[in-house]
Amino acid sequence: MTSASSTSASGALPERAGRHCHNALNPFHSAHYFAPELPAEMGALGVEGRAVYFSSRSAPLGAVGAGTVAATFYSFRYELIARYVPEVWTVTTPQAVLDARLRAVDATLRRLLGDEALESPEMAEAAKLALRAAEAGARHARPLYSAHADLPVPDAPHLAYWHATTLLREHRGDGHLVALLDAELDPVEALVTHSATGRGMSRRGNLATRGWSEEDWAAAQERLRGRGLLGAEGELTEAGVQLRKDLERTTDRLDRAPYVRLGAEGVARLTELAAAFTAKVVEAGAFPAELFGEG
């Protein structure tokens, strides 16, 4: 891997370039999960509450059961998923959910960014670059990426860009699960260590959305302390910090193909465009602060 300050004439990637690009892309994909437009569209199908998220994200896999969702989503308690899946598929179909999700994404982005941004040359450029990167993803052992890759690319540039950000998000996510398994972190331990970095969702946010209890969280902390990864106050030890660094490096390595396809200049330009659009989405209030703050 090259250093952060150097690239070759052939366009070799700087260190962590793919990670930085992903970090700029991912909020554009995920904003719709926090938007009122998604539950409104899904409510018209008879889908409500937590079933909205589980069905909208897993719909590309087909009418799967709770076990498949737990395996591919990883950080959610199985029993929480099983309250809604597969029962949701007796109410509606995966295709109806996919159609509703795309309508919700369109409405969300129009509200957050406005038509001028969505119809801009920059949006069309971002879509072209992101789709080119996403096409280089590996399907094998990547169920969510592979299932989304079977979906048609929307015609509108902003929806094509959103589709590509979704592919890139799930490609990295599928690889990250491999890294978590290799590090022997179970779902709660993964959440605890990520939260302890200060970059992940807060404990309160994780417990509110993932279905785990305070007791589950405390037990995971004790297991991590037993491995020397977590300190008395819930902070990462030196070994814990190193583990999280190793996890991200492994994830970077497994996620290189899309960004290698673009080369250094292409990744830098996509990161620039993605960061600008994401900044606008965040400034428009797309994400609830209480999920990412202290506690």
TrEMBL record:
Protein's recorded name: SalK
Pfam family, one: HTH_67
NCBIfam families tied to this protein: SCO6745_fam_HTH (NF047719)
Naturally occurring in which organism (per UniProt): Streptomyces albospinus
InterPro entries reported for this sequence: HTH_67 (IPR054058)
